[in-house]
Amino acid sequence: MSAPTETRVDRWIWAVRLVKTRAQGTAACRGGHVRVNGVRAKAATPVRVGDEVRVTTEAGQRIVVVREVLLKRVGAPVAAKAIEDRTPPPPPKEERPTVPRRDRGAGRPTKRERRQIERLRGY
Questions:
Q1: 96 pLDDT above the threshold of 70
Q2: At residue 92, what are phi and psi to the nearest 5 degrees?
């Protein structure tokens, strides 16, 4: 029996462990978070050896090239051999955008602050 030459993109990203479940792979395709060779992919889009797949997840964007077509989910060492990871390294900590924080006293008080205000006023 010869190795498969292509498979569905949702099945492949699940098999190489880019998403945890096949349903998440299908949902990512439906949401426009998967691109094959720069084109937005539907779940049934076929992937072949040499195709570039970009998947956007909560952890960030992964850019991988298909080295081997897999039909079933495999262990991490086998999955690592089936892809060529071209994801750029994350930026240094100084260059990452900071999370905006509210200055003390600006905006609505938090629940903790409200309780402190109520204790101070004697309610």
A1: no
A2: -60, 160
